Amino acid sequence: MPIYEYRCHDCGEKFEKLVRTSSDRTELSCPNCGSKQAEKLMSLFGTSGFSATPNFTSSANESCQPTG
């Protein structure tokens, strides 16, 4: 059951909605203003903590030795 991200056309609020069936999509309304005018946004999907991208935040001059 996917969770989709939406943006309200009337107030600009971003919100998420768990969509179980196509009828859930037709009953969609903004939790901020109640408008039925919302746009589905492109969003990233979550993973289980695995990162395929290496961490390049530490410099080559830093060591893994304790500092104190």
Please render the helix and strand layout as text.
Blueprint: E1 3-8, E2 14-18, H1 22-26, E3 38-40
The main sheet orders its strands as 2-1-3
- Helices, by number, come to 1
How far is the first residue's CA from the last residue's CA? 49 Å
Q: From N to C, what is the helix and strand string?
A: EEHE
Extended strand count: 3
Report mean pLDDT, rounded to a whole number: 76
SS content category: mainly beta
Report the sheet with the most strands, covering strand number, pairing sense and barrel closure. 3 strands, antiparallel
Strand content: 15-25%
Spans with pLDDT under 50 lasting ≥5 residues? none
Identify the overall geometry.
elongated
Radius of gyration of CA atoms, rounded to a whole number = 20 Å
Helicity, in percent? Answer: under 10%
Using brief descriptors, characterize the structure shown.
single chain; 68 residues; mainly beta; 3-stranded antiparallel sheet; 3 strands
Question: In a few lines, what is going on in this structure?
Answer:
The protein is mainly β and 68 residues long. It has one helix at 22-26; strands at 3-8, 14-18, 38-40.
Question: What does this molecule look like?
Answer:
- By secondary structure, the chain is mainly beta.
- 7% of the residues lie in helices and 21% in strands.
- The protein has a domain at 3-36.
- The longest helix has 5 residues, at 22-26.
- The protein starts with a strand and ends in a 28-residue tail after the last strand.
- A hairpin with a 5-residue loop joins strand 1 and strand 2 (14-18).
